Amino acid sequence: MELLEGVNDGWGSGGVKGFLLAKRLRDTELADWLRRFGERLLAIGGETTQEGGHGNTAPRDSAASLQELARRLELLS
Fold first, then answer.
1. Helix (H, G, I), strand (E, B) or coil at 77
2. In which region does residue 25 sit, left (phi positive, over 0), alpha (psi from -120 to 50) or beta (all else)?
3. H-helix segments, the chain
4. Cα–Cα distance between 7 and 58 in angstroms, integer?
5. Fewer CB within a 10 Å sphere, N or C end of the chain?
6. Domain positions in the chain
7. Is pLDDT at 48 greater than 60 in this prediction?
């Protein structure tokens, strides 16, 4: 999440590379983590779209949070 916060704050490729070096992460480790993270997000997203209820803002809030997270992941790409 720290990495996603960094790209949201304007880190370019140099900032991302510096972060990975400082954390001693290899590209393959980041790719593996992103894959697992994406799978969890897809599972959460499916649960959110299946939830209903009148007057319940939790699904809407969850969807907004996932959209923000997706935006940050897109910045990372």
1. coil
2. beta
3. 2-8, 13-22, 27-50, 58-76
4. 27
5. C
6. 2-76
7. no
